Amino acid sequence: MFTPAQAVIIVTDRCSLDREQLLTRLESAWRDLQESYAGLSDSEIMKPGVTGQWSVRDILAHVTTWEQEALNHLPTILGGRKPPLYSVSHGGIDSFNRAMTEKKRDLTWADVCRDLEETHRRVHDFIGLVPEAQFRTETPFRRRLRLDTYSHYRLHALAIRNWRKKQLKGARESDPGTEKTDRD
């Protein structure tokens, strides 16, 4: 279930876009995701509980999985066909997410970062090859791209930021000598 703030992130994208506007939207959401975890220590990156039992590392591996899914299925959509349903191929999206999380469980933080950057670059490059008409309206292509990339980035960036706020609040509560600032 999504919070109201998360629901706003995934609403339908009905405005007309050209390739550059879409890439701007994609890269803005990408930077937002990167900023959400910037400055975290390696131990914080690996700490479970950001979203369910997922750590920031798990979330970023998950984001990479969905970018990879976009790269796998967007050519099918461009060809006028429908990709397989996750309910048929994996028993549902939640089952797919669990299986992919387990598959990537032993990746190092460096491996996750490398996969994240490489896969994102491939998505960006792929968009450069797609006919402009696919961006003009809410086509099946653009919908899948949005759900697997820029709305997905923002959803997880928000979750990471909320977790960081809770961590900061918890640290302050456990250290009564911590003063509040105007930024609190």
Helix proportion of residues, in percent?
A: 55-70%
Report the major sheet.
none
Distance between the termini: 28 Å
**SSE series:** HHHHHHHHHH
In round numbers, the mean pLDDT is 88
Strand content: under 5%
From the alpha carbons, calculate the radius of gyration and give it in angstroms.
Answer: 18 Å
Number of discrete helical segments? 10
Report the uncertain regions.
4-11, 180-184
List keywords for this structure.
184 residues; mainly alpha
Word description of this protein:
With 184 residues, this protein is mostly helical. The chain has helices spanning 4-9, 19-37, 42-46, 56-78, 86-89, 93-103, 109-127, 133-136, 140-148, 150-174. It has a domain at 17-25 and 53-165. Helices cover 68% and strands 0% of the residues. The two termini are 28 Å apart. 21% of the residues are buried.
Short summary of the structure?
It contains 10 helices and no strands. The chain is mostly helical and 184 residues long. Helix 2 (19-37) runs parallel beside helix 10, helix 4 packs antiparallel against helix 9 (140-148) and helix 9 (140-148) packs parallel to helix 10.
